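Run: sequence + guanosine-5'-diphosphate -> complex structure.
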Amino acid sequence: MRLALLGIGQAGGKIVDEFLRYDARAGSNVVQAACVINTAQVDLDGLEYVPVEDQLLVGESRVSGHGVGADNELASTIFAENVDELGDTLDRAPVHKVDAFLVVAALGGGTGSGGGPVVIRHLQQLFTEPVYGLGVLPSEDEGGLYTLNAARSLQTFVREADNLLLFDNDAWREPGESAGGAYSTMNEALVRRLGVLFGAGEHSNGDVGTRVVDSSEIINTLAGGGISSIGYATAQLESETNGGLLSRFEVDDEPVEDSATSTSRITGLVRKETLGRLTLPCDVGGVGRALLVVAGPPEFLNRKGVERAQSWLGEETGSMEVRGGDYPIPDVDKVAGVVLLSGVTSVPRIDELKDRATEARKSNDRVASDDADSVDGIFDEGIDPLF
Ligand code: GDP
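>> structure
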C-alpha cells in the first residue's frame, strides 16, 4: 500500500525519518511521499533521511523557530495560519500515486499534538483518499501536562482521522534505558510493524496456494474509524528447523517442509502477536475488525495456516470481520506475522489518561478556563468518553 507520510513535531519527524530508512533498506516501496513539519528548527536539523526540501518550518513569526514547548493550542493556531504552505509542499510530492495519508505525531507534546489534527483536517478537505493518524501516547512519568495534552488531543485525532493507530510509550520503554536510546529502539519496532502491514498491500508474486493481502483489505479493516493497535511476532526458520534441516529438504533449490509444520508455525505466530505486546495494549475481546498478515518466503506461507489463524482470531476478538493473507518476501530467514486490531474498545491506558486529565483539570482552574477558549473548535471541551 502506497503512503504519503506527514511527520508533525519532534516524535512525528523522527518516526517518519525511521520509516524512510526502513523503506529504503527493505525496498518495500511503501513511502511515495514524505514531509515533516515543525515549529522547532533544531528538531528538523536532527533528521537524516527526510530531504531538506521536504522539511517545513512553520510559525517563525510567533516562535522564531524555537518551538511551542508543550503549548498545543499555540501549535494549533500556527498550523491553522500556515496550512496553505502545506498545500504547496504537497503539490511538489507525488501524492496522486498514494492509497492513503498517514499523519504521525506525539499526542502529549505541543507541535504534533496541536498541529496534527489541523493537518489531518486539511488533507481530508483536499483529498479523497483516507487520512490515518499515527499517535504516540506519553509515558506515565512524563507529567500532568503531557497527560492532559494527550487526553484532549486524542479525541481530536479520533474525530478528524479515518482511523488512529496508537503506540503507547509507557508500554514500550524499558526501565533504565536512556530516553534517546529508548526512542530509537521504539521507533524501529513501530516502523517494522507498519512496514510489514503496509508493505503487504504492495507485493504480489502470483504464487499459487497463497492469498496476497491487497491495499483495499487494509483500507476496509481501518474503515469505520476509532483506534487501532498492532501486534507483531516472528519465527526464525533456521533455528526452528534444527540448524540446517532446511537444506536437507531442498527440491529444485527451494527448501520445503511439510504443510503441517508451516500451518502450526503460522497459527503459533498469530497467537503470539495477538496475545503479546501490542503497540497499544488493549483487550482483544472487543475489537471491531482485524487483519492478519503473514510475511516470509513463499514456500513457508500456506493458506491453511492463515485460514486457521484467521478463525482463531475471529473467536478471540469476537469480530465478524477478520481478514487475512500473505506477504511473500523471498530470501529471508524468518516468518513474521502482523495483526491489525481496528476499532478497539477496551483500552486501560486510555481510561487512565482520561481519569488523569480530568483530575488535572479539576486541580487547575486556569487550564479549565483555557479549555473554553479552544481554537476553531479543534479541541473539544471536557473529556468525553471516546467509545
Ligand atoms: P512536539 O515536537 O512539540 O510535538 O513534541 P514531541 O514530539 O517531542 O512530543 C513529546 C512526546 O513525544 C513525549 O511523550 C515523548 O515521550 C514523545 N517522544 C519524543 N520523541 C519520541 C520518539 O522518537 N519516539 C517516541 N515513541 N516518542 C517520542
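>> summary
The CA atoms of residues 296 and 341 lie 21 Å apart. Confidence is low (pLDDT under 50) at residues 239-253, 367-387.
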